[in-house]
Amino acid sequence: MGKPPNLYAYPSTDDLAKSLRAYVIDAQNNALERHHVFRVGVSGGSLPKTLAKALLQGGSASEDDKCQFGKWEIFFADERAVPLDHEDSNYRLVKEELLDKIPPDMGPPTVFPIDVNYLDDIQEMADQYEQTLVKSFAARDSVKTPMFDLLLLGCGPDGHTCSLFPGSPLLREHDAWVLPISNSPKPPPKRITLSLPVAAHGLKIAFVATGGGKADILRKIFDTEEGHQLPCGLINTLGQERVSWFVDYDAVNGVQFPSRRGAL
Ligand SMILES: O=C1O[C@H](COP(=O)(O)O)[C@@H](O)[C@H](O)[C@H]1O
Asked: Which of 160, 165, 178 should be mutated for ligand 1, with most atoms under 8 A from CB?
């Protein structure tokens, strides 16, 4: 039995952002030491705003405390099958919240959006995105399952993460790296998503959840057997101590999970 996931709770999103920054920079520095590139999978939803707060704040003057965005490869943990400038696009959200605000001397990162030529064929879109991962990961590492240096994930109010929804047959897929979904319970219906084995295989996996609207689902995920079967719960079980949750006090209100709290 490995160790359980880490749960770090903070009084405010400002405090959370400081700690998330330190965690991301540590993951970045370790990755750059290992293979000179930092491969990150990001989600949409509420995450990009908090992430931007974390990464765009000034750190100390030290080299070890800098986001070296020029060495980042950014992939999408899930994406909606819409044009890149559509209001539902996760790419657009990450671009507006983070990418467009990176000072020129810190970047730019290499970003891998979906291929919008396949908006009407999401199986093909998923296959193409998988090929994008193959080019970046398998070419370098010859791996069966790609291991992101860091996955930054959200947690929906139903316990979904990426576009892996509770009870979906996609949760049983073991071979594909990227999957199409045509009937997402949350609009828009057509999406692609990392599969569960890939989403659970990150070297580091961070969930970010803020606000009282997340408290019910976090209680379920951490404190009930039923919650362990939800997509976020499955990643907790598979990822164990590689998983860290960054939450504010409102989101974690009433959670009993007896893990470490407070500062990282
Ligand atoms: O639809 C999605 O929802 C999840 C969770 O979003 P949140 O707004 O509740 O944080 C998000 O992680 C995912 O990328 C997105 O496509």
From this structure: 160
> How much is the ipTM here?
0.98
157 CA to middle of ligand 1, Å?
9
Q: Where are the beta strands (DSSP E) in the chain?
A: 6-10, 38-42, 72-76, 78-80, 110-111, 150-153, 178-181, 191-194, 205-209, 243-248
Residue-by-residue DSSP string for 116-138: GGGTT-HHHHHHHHHHHHIIIII
Q: Strand, helix or coil at 216?
A: helix
pTM: 0.96
Structure tokens at 101: 């605000």
Expressed in angstroms and rounded, the spacing between residue 252 Cα and the centre of ligand 1 is: 18
33 touches 143 (CB < 8 A):
no
